[in-house]
Amino acid sequence: MAKYTTLGQIQKDIKDGKTNCVQLVDYYLQQIEKNEHLNAYCEVFEDEARHRAAELDKKYRKDPHSVGRLFGAVISLKDVICYAGHEVTAAATILRGFKSLFSATAVERILAEDAIIIGRTNCDQFAMGSDNTNSIYGAVLNADDPSLVPGGSSGGSAVAVQADTCLASLGSDTGGSVRQPADFCNVIGFKPSYGRISRHGLLAYGSSFDQIGTLSHSVADAALLLEVMAGEDDFDATASSQPVEPYFENLEKSNPSVKIAYFGKVLDADGIDPDIRNTNWAIIDKLRVEGHTVESVDFDLLDYVVPAYYVLTTAEASSNLSRFDGVRYGYRTEGVKTLEETYRRSRTEGFSEEVKRRIILGTFVLSAGYYDAYYAKAQKVRRLVSDRFNAIFAEYDFILMPNSPIKPWKVGEKADDPVAMYLADIYSVIANMGGIPAIALGKHKFQLMAAKGEDGKLLAFAHRF
C-alpha cells in the first residue's frame, strides 16, 4: 500500500474501491511492527482497531453518506490523553496500570466522526522534556536517524506519523511539545490558540499553558482535526466560546499577500545553528519574492521568556501533580506504616528525576518567602509578552521564527544538563506564553504564529505555503 499523506487521498481510494478501513489498519499495524525499534508506541490497540475498522466498512457499505468526516483516519494518542477503558500513564510509574473511566472531549469528538484510534504513543513523563528520553518505556528514536532524539515531549506522536504508522496523532503542547518534535521529525505540528480545544481529559502539567495539538503529514488534516475537536465544553471552563470556523473549507481563502514579522536578533544570535539560520533567511527571501511584506521587528523580552515560562509551569505542575499521592489511584508503595511515608515513598518511586526536579522548583517559587520574587514577577513578564504580541499583530498578520535554535541531538547527550535542554525551548515557549496559535512546517525548519483566535487564518496561509 502506498503512503498516504492526507485523509482526502484515503477517502478517495475508499470511494474508488482501492482500499478500505480494515486494509488501512492492517497496513499501519504492519508499519508499527516494522518500526518497533523506534519505541514510538507504549500500547497498540490491535484487535480493537481491526474491529472498529470492520464496523466502519460495514457502515460505509450500507450507506456511504452515513460516515463521519474522519472516516478512514487512523490516529494515535499521546499517553497523556484519556481514552475510556484504556490505560493512560503519562509514561510514569505513578500511573502504571491506571485505566481511564472517561474519554477526553477531543477523543470523543474524533470518535464521533468515525476516526480509528490505533494506540497510545510514548512521551516524556507528564509531558516534561524536550527529547522523549524521560519515559518509563524508554527513549523514542528518530526514524530518520535512530541515533538522534525525535524531540519532546510529543516525540512518540511525531515518530508515529514520521514512520507512517498512522495518518495523524494527537499530542499536547505546553511549551513547544508538538512543534519541536514536528520540526525534528519533518512533519506538521499545530498548536491551536489556548482554549480552542478543550483540555478535559488531558493530564495536566501547566494548566494555563497546556493545549492539545496535532501532528500530521499535511496542514489540511490539521485543519480538519481542529474543526472536529474545537468548541465549547461544559467540562472545561477555559475552552473558548469563539464560534468554530470551517477551518478545512477555508484553507483556500488565504490572502495573496500578507505582512510577516520576524525577530532579526534571533536569526543573528550566536547560539543558533548556522543551517537553521540560513534556512530561515532563505524562507524570508522566498516569501518576499512571492510578494509578501517581511520585516524585522524588535522583541526585547526574549531573554526573560524561558525563565518566566519555567517558573510558571513548574508552579502549576507542583499543584497539579499533588493529586498523585499513592492513595486514590495509581502506584502505591507497599509495606509502609504511616500516611506521610506512603506519600513520600510513593511519589519518590513513582516520579522520574526530571518530574521531581520541576515539582520541587514549583513548590519553591510558590513558597511564602519567594512567591513575589519569582512567581508574581513571572506573571508580569507573561503579561508583557502578551501585550507585545498584541502590538505586533496590530500591524502584521504573522510572526516567523525557528522552532529550535539547534538541530536534533544524540540520544542521551543532554541527560546530565537539564538547563541546556530548557534553553532549547527558547523559540517555542513564546507562543504558549501568549496563548497564540503556532504551526511548525516540518522540513522547512520554521514556525508561523498568529494572533490569538486567528487559527483559521494561520492554517490557510500555511496550507498555501
Explained architecture:
By secondary structure, this protein is of the alpha/beta class. The protein has a domain at 7-251: Amidase signature (AS) domain (Amidase signature (AS) enzymes, Alpha-Beta Complex), CATH 3.90.1300. 40% of the residues lie in helices and 11% in strands. The chain is built from 16 helices and 11 strands. It has helices at 7-15, 21-34, 46-62, 105-112, 155-162, 179-185, 219-229, 264-267, 274-289, 302-320, 339-350, 353-366, 371-393, 418-423, 429-434, 455-464; strands at 41-44, 74-78, 116-121, 168-172, 188-191, 212-216, 259-263, 293-297, 398-401, 438-441, 447-449. An 11-stranded mixed beta sheet has the order 1-3-2-4-6-5-10-11-9-7-8, with helices on both faces. Strand 2 (74-78), helix 4 and strand 3 form a beta-alpha-beta unit. The longest helix has 23 residues, at 371-393.
Task: Spell out the CATH superfamily of the domain at 7-251.
Answer: Amidase signature (AS) domain
Largest sheet: 11 strands, mixed
Distance between the termini: 28 Å
Kindly provide the name of the CATH class of the domain at 7-251.
Alpha Beta
Unreliable runs: none
Strand content: 5-15%
Assign the CATH architecture of the domain at 7-251.
Answer: Alpha-Beta Complex
Which class do the helix and strand fractions yield?
A: alpha/beta
CATH fold-level topology of the domain at 7-251: Amidase signature (AS) enzymes
Mean pLDDT: 95
Output the number of helix runs.
16
Helical content band: 25-40%
Succession of helices and strands:
HHEHEHEHEHEEHEHHEHHHHEHHEEH
Strand order of the largest sheet: 1-3-2-4-6-5-10-11-9-7-8
Rough outline: globular
The total strand number stands at 11
Radius of gyration: 21 Å
